[in-house]
Fold:
Amino acid sequence: MPLFKLFLIFVKIGAILLGGGYVILPIMTNEFVDKRNLVSHDDIIDYFALSQSLPGIIAANMSMFIGYKLKGKWGALAAMIGVTFVPFWCIVLLASIIGALVNNSYVQGALWGVGVAVIALIILTVREMWQKSTRSAYFYAIFVLTLLTLLVFKLSPIQTILMFSILGVVYKRLWEAKQ
Amino acid sequence: MIYLHLFLEFFKIGLFSFGGGYATIPFLYHISEVYRWYSLDELTQMVAVASITPGPVGINVATYAGLKSAGIIGAALATSAEMLPSFFLVIIVSKLLRKFSDNFYVKSAIETLKPISGALLTSVAIGLLKPEIRDVKAMVLLGILLLISWKSKKDPLFYIIIAAIAGVFVTFFPALLL
Structure:
C-alpha cells in the first residue's frame, strides 16, 4: 500500500473518531481487518493492550503501532499526522463556533446518540473478540481475574496489565518447568 | 521562548500521562497555573470542545491549549510534542517485539495480553453502560443498534450517524417518547 493511501485511511479514521478514544478499536478492526485484511485480528488486540501500557494517548498509540507494522517508521509518522489531521483543523478553524454550540440542545441530543453508539460499538467489539480468540482454561482464568481486579479493586489499566502479564509469564515458566 | 516552553510542557504530558485523554487534564491545569497562557475557565471550555470534535480528546485539548497559548504554531507544536514520546516508544516496542518474537517470555506475555485486553474492553463497556442503565431511551436505542448489527456487521460510522440522528430526533420530539 502506498504511504499516501495509508495516510488517507488515517485521515478518515481521525475524522470519524467521535465519542472518545475507545471507538478506535472497532474503527481499526473495520478498516484494517474486515475491509482490507492487512492486519490480523490478533495483532489489533495486542496493539490495544500495548497502547494502554505506554504513556500518551491510546488512540494515537494504536494508530502508530499499525502504521509502523504496515510501513515502518514512515508509516508510524503517516499515522500520527493522519489521525490528527481533521481534529487539528477542526479545533484551529472552528473552535470558537463549536464553543458556542456546546450548549445547543440539538447538539447535545446528537452527542447523547453518539454516546449510545459508542457503547454499542464496544459491546460488539467485546463479542467479536470473544468469538475470535482461542479460549483455553488459561484464557478464561486471566480474563476473569483481570476483570475482577478492574471492577472490584479499581486498579488502573496500566497497573492491571503489568501485574497480570508478569503473573502470566511467571506461571507459564513454572508450569513449563514442571512438565 | 514561549514555543520552547510549550514544546517541553506538552512533551512531558506525552511522556508521563497514562490512561487516555482525561489523564492529561491535571497537567493542563498545572500549565494554566504556572504560565497563565489560558485561564481555568478557558480550560473547562477547551475540554468541552475537545470532547465533541472528532479525534482523541487528549490530542484535541492539546491542540486547543496550544492555540490559546501561541496561535496556530502553538497548536501544531503542542499537538506534535504530545505525540512525539509515544512515536519513539511505539517504534522501540515494535522493534523489540519483532526481534524477540520467539523468546519464551515475550511469547507468554503476548499470549497473556489477549485475555487482559478482552477484560479491559469489557470493563470499559460495563463502565459506560452503568450510568445509562436507568435511561430508558438510551437502552431502547442501544437495543435497536445491537439488533441491527447482530446479523451483519456494518461500518462503525453507520452506527454513529444513525444514533446521532436518533439523538436529534429525541430532542426534537421529546413528547413522542414519554
Summary: Chain A has two domains: 3-133, 135-179. Chain A touches chain B through 103 residues (CB under 8 Å).
